[in-house]
Amino acid sequence: MDFSQVEFLLSVHSLKQLPEEGMPEIAFAGRSNVGKSSLMNKLIGRKAMVKVSARPGKTQGLNYFQVGNQFHLVDLPGYGYAKVPKGMKDAWLSLISSYLENRNTLRCVVVIIDIRHEAKVQDTQLLEWLREQSIPCLAVYTKIDKLSGSARGKNARILDKGHGIIAEKRVLFSAKTGQGRDELIAALKTFLPS
Fold first, then answer.
1. Residue 114: which of 82, 152, 84 has the closest Cα?
2. Per-residue pLDDT, 93
3. Cα–Cα distance measured from residue 64 to residue 20, given in angstroms and rounded to the nearest whole number
4. CATH number of this structure's domain 6-189, picked from the four choices 3.40.50.300, 3.30.160.20, 3.90.1150.10, 3.90.1570.10
5. CA distance 5 to 68
6. SS3 content of the chain, % helix, strand, coil (to 5)
């Protein structure tokens, strides 16, 4: 994976705005303020390519980034944030679920989960729904730099059990230190054509 040529492509707010299907796509999903944008920036080796905000609900469309002529990264709006108007939430949900269910070029959904917290219902529901739809997914437990090694292992095992994940099918990651970046790249490569 060569991240030397990454550019913002477009922000999609309706299905008709989606780019033509061609390149494989990897989507990133997670609760609001889980560190999705920070993870994506660390992955591609840029400080601010993906906009980071302290305000939950900042990402309001499907933000497409093109990685050379290889594939697209798609930043999905965060879920679980209560202060977004219901109409906006419903529109996001419709757009996201239609995209996930119908996008033929979607190769994987990276589900980002904060390792510091117990299994959240919305994360579990998303992972189960993706499995039911036969949409490949990869769990990434982020913010591992906030825990000691023993607490990190314990929390990872609790999340594995809560979400029905085996350790080999998830990645531990820190957007702050970059720990887990190589493992994440290796895991993502398995979903893309060689």
1. 152
2. 75
3. 12
4. 3.40.50.300
5. 5
6. 35, 25, 40
Amino acid at 18: L
Question: Tokens in use for 103?
Answer: 């996008």
Q: How many residues does the chain have?
A: 194
* Cβ(81)–Cβ(30) below 8 Å: no
Q: How far is CA 45 from CA 2, 67, 114, in A?
A: 10, 12, 21
Burial of 141 (0-12, 13-18, 19+ CB in 10 A): buried
Say if CB 23 and CB 72 are below 8 A apart. yes
Q: In what order do the strands lie in the sheet with 170-172?
A: 6-12, 62-67, 71-75, 25-30, 106-114, 137-142, 170-172
- What is the rounded distance in angstroms from the CA atom of residue 77 to the CA atom of residue 93? 9
List, for residues 145-154, the tens digit of each pLDDT value. Answer: 999 989 999 9
In 3-state terms, what secondary structure has residue 120? coil
CA 130, distance to chain mean position in Å, is 13
Hey, CA dihedral for 77, 2, 184, 188, is it positive or negative? positive
Residue spans per domain, the chain: 6-189
Which stretches in the chain have pLDDT values below 70?
A: 52-60, 81-92
